[in-house]
Amino acid sequence: MILSAAAATAEGQTVATLLRADSLRNAGSYAEAIEAYREVNDKKGIPGSWRLRALTGMATCNRQTGNYREALENYRTIDSKGLLDVRGKLNMSNLYLTLGLYADAVDLLEPLNATIGQDTRLINLASAYAYLGRGGDALQLLATAPTDGMSAEQKATLTANRGFIEMSLGQHEAAAASLGKAAGMLAEGAGRYIVMANLALAESGCGHADKALAHIDSCLTWQKTNLGEKHPDYAISVRKRAEILLKAGRKDEAAEWFKTYFGLMRNYVCRSFAFLTDKQRQDFWFSNEPLVTECYATEAADPQLLYDVALFSKCLLLQVERNIEAEARRDTSASRLYDSIASLRREADKGSSDARQRDSLYAEADRQEQRLMAMMDGYRSFNANMRLTSADIARRLGRNETAIEFIRYGSTSARRYAALTLDGTGKVGFVPLWTEDSLRNFRLTDGRTLNEAMNSMRAADKNAIYTDTKLSSMIWSKLKPLLTKRGRIYFAPDGLLHLLAIENMTDAMNGSDVCRLSSTRELANDDKDIRGKALIMGGVSYDECDAKTQDDATAAPDRSASSILSALHLPPAANGAYAYLPATAAEADTIRSMIEKGNGIKAECIKGTQATETAFKLAAPSCSMIHLATHGFCFADTDRPEPLAFCRDSLREDDTMSRSGLVFAGANRMVQPAYSAYDDGILLAREASEMRLDRAALVVLSACQTGLGPITSEGVFGFQRGLKKAGAGAIVASLWNVDDKATKLLMTRFYHHLLGGMPMSEAFAQAKTDLRCHEVKIEVETDEDDKSHGQIRRLGRWVWPKKKVMKTVRPYSKPQYWAAFILIKK
């Protein structure tokens, strides 16, 4: 066939675009490569081999940048066009494992006749079996799989993976045998010493500490010489040596090695994090955070180390959102430096037998990094935040102030809690507390367990929690001796304490002010200024919305909430709708009036049909104070099972951030498919996380369940997490559904004190006291007959009415009305 000149030219341009995409991918410019590949794929009538190359290239780039779901969609598109070969199916199985879709991985791999990559098929299938609780099937598969045609290295990899699964299942003797066999099959090199390091852990599990230390020391010697101390493999072996010492009961020695490991890991993260995508950083930290915090098990051996680890681990997840690359791209010189540093470190991290060349690459990257930090305030603060220590926090503490980092450590079946305490002198203490089981199963005075009461919707259960003096004593009693006089306590929760308002418990700390922080590192930062512009939304009409506010949208509508809620059969997409909250309109009006009264703050109040999701997205980024009086929800599973050590689910956020949200005007209607051209009226935590709320010093979520979600080291993965990612400062959220009249009173008293000049934490505490002590007069009947009036007919009889008197009552004194609300300072 003879092509026309125009067709030949178009074909040549397509080939050129494909080659350019390949070049960009090889250079690590994945985002640009994806766009080029997409341009090729969008063309009609191109050969199937070109389309396969474009889609495969997109999948590779998406995988490299942590966009695993997008990569999976690329492979599914390839499959739908009949172009998915064995290699593609193996890559697809890798994505299934990464995304936690283990049953899908089994369905794909069991029938697959892998003419190539049989070792990958077996390893991935065994991993999927193991995660699904089919450990016996996993080991049987690896033990009986035909290995004809495999290289010695592939056979060794299968054997090593068998050993790793055996170790994860607690079969240490078998694991030691498998890993020892695999190590003997491998030639000298990095791979062999990774296997040797795992062999050391298996021997440790068998109780052979001396043999384990000999193995790990041989790894450290080889890695230090051939990879260098800055290489992550060396840091991992240092951690494994600490684990072996800890298992042998040598806590002081273990603490020293954990300290070395922590220093190496922190330096690695500071060097690398700014050069990864946010999803890569998230994936990295979910996988490594449990390993870094293993040092908590050394307990009192080095409390200062543990405090520094707590600061670091709680800092990292928020640093995930700092897009240093985007900041660097705003300046040509900074952009060139950024690319140069990334290239130097990638080359150095590959490892080299030439130690001098490797060290030279690291040194040059460090020199260039100093120049980049001098040019970019954002990059400099990025590094400084990750290097904060207990000494930095101590310098910010007042005379009668104490900082407490609660920590949780140990395996799922034996998790323990402890408190790391810090005073202004810089002294760190370690206070052992309780096990998670003993806390969950604590019997309240009404006979229910704490876990049952926390998960209950009954007001009586909330009252039982926050009036139980024995529970309060269990949580706080060991910490009370730290206070010689009334002062202020700053605490950062962990584990269940994220979902328990311990600051609201009976006599929490001898009457001291107790202030919740996401991390005590926040004490090193100055508070944002609340003066500026305020946004208040309330009295929301959930059935109708103003079309004009929808037409003002500057971005494409986000309909993800309606899709998710529909799939889960949850309201308002299915099975119900949101009801109007009468008190929130008055709440919004009152707060607006208070804010504008002589405070130099301009307030915008949006109510009724105008209080749309779109209106919020447009108005919120310019505001220093945001108050949202509306429905909130959290449908996330707060008790997800712990994954196996080798199959950590690093993508929890994808699900949980899409199951918490706030409801805006018209949501009951806008979730329906007929309104697909508009926002659906529901703002998910994920959507909020993509906004710019850096100016917001305070965000008040006067809504239900806005403090709930799955627990992580940084906090709760609910709506508050989305706001933190967006850059918001302090957040007020609730842990359960609260009466809207009580909420209105609490909020108005909070603003009264805050705008009157009271510090935020004190204003919030005083507002709760005001609500508890709020008095009203009501008319009540006495037992005395009132003969000044005629008789009345009651229950078929004529009787004298009872005399009535006015009585003063406190209608909101019970914790069900005020203990749900927490202030999370940031």
TrEMBL record:
<dbReference type="InterPro" id="IPR024983">
    <property type="entry name" value="CHAT_dom"/>
</dbReference>
<protein>
    <recommendedName>
        <fullName>CHAT domain-containing protein</fullName>
    </recommendedName>
</protein>
<dbReference type="InterPro" id="IPR011990">
    <property type="entry name" value="TPR-like_helical_dom_sf"/>
</dbReference>
<dbReference type="Pfam" id="PF13432">
    <property type="entry name" value="TPR_16"/>
</dbReference>
<feature type="domain" description="CHAT">
    <location>
        <begin position="470"/>
        <end position="824"/>
    </location>
</feature>
<dbReference type="Pfam" id="PF12770">
    <property type="entry name" value="CHAT"/>
</dbReference>
